[in-house]
Design a protein that fits this description.
The chain is elongated, with a radius of gyration of 21 Å. Helix 2 packs antiparallel against helix 4, helix 6 packs parallel to helix 7 and helix 11 packs parallel to helix 12. The strands form 2 sheets. A 7-stranded mixed β-sheet has the order 5-4-3-6-7-9-8, sandwiched between helices. A two-stranded antiparallel ribbon has the order 1-2. It has 289 residues and is an alpha/beta fold. It has 2 domains: 64 residues, Ubiquitin-associated (UBA) domain (Helicase, Ruva Protein, domain 3, Orthogonal Bundle); 197 residues, 3-Layer(aba) Sandwich (Rossmann fold), CATH 3.40.50.150.
Length: 289
């Protein structure tokens, strides 16, 4: 006999607890809601409703995927970021709350600017940064990424969030495909680049190591390779007074500050902490003279 919503939830929670999956109740609810295509509250309001055989089989399959460590966001095929709903898959990193700090700082910096801005998002991934900025600022965003599958997904996200006209997605290794005519005209370069050192990769949670794209995580030169590249190449595109905003790993902020100082084109360097008190974002402005 098929199980009811409440019976299915109870069993799933037990399985997740036994397998040490964090937030077992939340995982059980979100997966069942996804399977039966009903909001979470209806799982309880109609708790005695039975799953169909197909729904039961699908729910069991998704539970096993989660137990094996597949991130919930990949199973559901979507996540939330800065109030936006975004599709995600194995080709892109899952957007994280730390990156919302990056976006928030850029929005705050430009909140009193009325003229249209030109912004570069280096390493667009799912499009989360580009879309959030386009939604909240009077701007046009050039979203760069080396991965074609990532860009394809990012375009879908821009369309579903009705913001595609404000973003140009470019397949580009670094800044190579960005029009040279934009040199000196970009108001902000924003990036959450790969910054994980190879030696640190093995210490990452299994969910990240096994399922998220390594190309979006790993960086040479102690995790500083791409950060240095963005600083050295990006300075030519920034307008005078233009902003560079970079997300960094634990312990990297002061090293990135030194890279910016060495570039000798920047001033007003700041470090911002995330909600856990970790130095997470480095900002600087291109010198005006």
């Amino acid at each position: 006999m098929n199980q009811t919503y409440l019976q299915s939830l109870r069993k799933a929670k037990q399985i997740f607890k036994k397998s040490k999956v964090s937030s077992p109740g939340v995982n059980a609810e979100l997966l069942l809601s996804h399977v039966v295509k009903k909001p979470k509250v209806e799982l309880y309001l109609n708790g005695n409703q039975f799953l169909t055989k197909n729904q039961e089989q699908k729910y069991k399959k998704l539970i096993q995927e989660r137990v094996r460590g597949k991130p919930l966001q990949y199973i559901l095929g979507e996540t939330e970021f800065y109030g936006l709903k975004l599709k995600v898959d194995k080709n892109v990193l899952i957007p994280r709350p730390e990156t919302e700090i990056l976006v928030e700082n850029v929005i705050n910096f430009f909140k009193d600017r009325s003229e249209k801005l030109q912004i570069v998002d280096w390493g667009a991934g799912s499009g989360n940064i580009a879309i959030a900025l386009a939604k909240n600022l009077n701007c046009f965003v050039y979203a760069l990424d080396v991965s074609q599958p990532a860009l394809k997904l990012a375009r879908k996200n821009a369309l579903s969030n009705k913001i595609a006209k404000k973003i140009k997605f470019l397949r580009s290794d670094g800044f190579k495909k960005l029009d040279k005519k934009l040199e000196g005209k970009i108001d902000a370069i924003v990036s959450n680049p790969p910054y994980v050192r190879k030696s640190d990769f093995k210490t990452l949670p299994q969910e990240i190591k096994k399922f998220e794209p390594k190309v979006a995580l790993l960086s040479k030169k102690n995790g500083l390779f791409y950060l240095q590249q963005i600083i050295e190449q990006g300075k030519h595109f920034l307008s005078k007074g233009g902003l560079i905003t970079l997300e960094v790993a634990l312990g990297q902020a002061k090293k990135v500050v030194k890279l910016i100082e060495r570039a000798d084109n920047f001033e007003k360097i700041q470090i911002k902490k995330d909600l856990a008190g970790i130095e997470r974002v480095v900002l600087a402005q291109r010198k005006k003279s």
